[in-house]
Specification:
Order of helices and strands: HEEEHEHEHEHHEHHEEEHHH
Number of strands: 10
Radius of gyration: 22 Å
Helix content: 40-55%
Distance between the termini: 59 Å
Strand order of the largest sheet: 1-4-5-6-7-8
Strand content: 5-15%
Largest sheet: 6 strands, parallel
Number of helices: 11
Shape: globular
Structural class: alpha/beta
């Protein structure tokens, strides 16, 4: 390394979010690094020097390696993209195994992807609408990886945002996280207004994705963003109930324990059944939007019984 990176922008970012649990960075890597062709000894040395320098710099700011997540290639869906991830991740994991490789594969059939691409990732974040529509084989593929130690997240990226149902698209995603053991929930994207004011989206270049109402000077919440918040709160209720339940035993459980377990399994399934197809994530599809609220009240009642 003949010239060290400039950490000023990263430092400014840390100052804005000083107590974050994770810092997730899109590295957007290519087939060469600092002029070194991928797969060569020079490439490996350059990537090694780069990641070691950053980890050491972050330690000086009290950021541990496990707090750093790297998205190397966004939405990989080709063998070439998989290879880029593998080549970089091999070096990063060898030198800094605490840093997480976080990827959002968009292979329609993940069994056709490069197996090593999944192996080198600690965190896998499939697209939830694709998961919903693809059926049991798609879900089963990621569930098997989750069972072998890969951490699971979900993300959704659909739009324009104003056509999406805040209940089915935004609020229910954390219910899917609970159902499948995912620890992260993400949406594209907090600030993507496609270059237009949210108060007049006709000039938007591609269609606005933000769940907020943005213009050049203001940020205003709305039903979509409040649904994201409520979904996170729903998840916390489910987690608190789960913490109150004892481990499953072969002996008969009390009525309160049985009810609690049913709420966390079959009732969660009933709530997520509102989006048996991702088409139901749009406003125009009729659905019962009261079910999550009813089950949430039942969860709270169950916690009182178990107190």
């Amino acid at each position: 390394m003949i010239q060290t990176p400039d950490p000023a922008a990263f430092r400014k970012w840390l100052d804005r979010w000083p107590s974050s649990r994770l810092y997730c960075v899109f590295a957007d890597v290519k087939t060469n690094f600092a002029g070194c062709a991928m797969g060569t000894p020079a490439f490996q040395q350059a990537v090694s020097g780069w990641i070691n320098w950053w980890v050491n710099q972050l330690k000086q700011w009290n950021v541990r390696p496990k707090q750093l997540c790297l998205l190397l290639v966004d939405e990989p869906a080709t063998a070439g993209q998989d290879r880029i991830i593998v080549e970089y991740a091999r070096v990063i994991r060898k030198d800094q195994p605490g840093v997480s490789i976080w990827e959002d594969p968009t292979w329609k059939n993940p069994s056709k992807a490069t197996p090593e691409m999944f192996d080198v990732c600690q965190v896998l974040c499939p697209h939830l609408p694709a998961w919903i529509d693809a059926g049991s084989s798609f879900a089963g593929f990621y569930q098997r990886l989750h069972e072998t130690g890969h951490r699971l997240w979900f993300y959704s990226c659909r739009g324009p945002a104003r056509l999406l149902d805040p209940y089915a698209y935004h609020r229910l995603q954390p219910w899917y996280c609970w159902k499948y053991g995912a620890e992260g929930s993400a949406f594209w994207a907090f600030t993507d207004s496609s270059g237009a004011s949210s108060w007049n989206e006709y000039p938007a270049r591609l269609g606005a994705y933000t769940p907020l109402f943005l213009d050049a000077k203001t940020v205003t919440t709305g039903k979509h963003w409040e649904a994201v918040r409520e979904g996170v709160e729903d998840y916390e209720y489910l987690r608190m109930l789960g913490d109150r339940l004892p481990p499953a035993q072969p002996t008969a459980a009390s009525a309160a324990i049985s009810t609690g377990r049913q709420l966390l399994t079959s009732e969660v399934d009933r709530v997520t059944s509102a989006t048996a197809s991702s088409a139901a994530q749009f406003w125009s599809v009729k659905k019962d939007r009261t079910l999550a609220d009813r089950v949430r009240v039942q969860v709270l009642d169950a916690m009182v019984e178990l107190k």
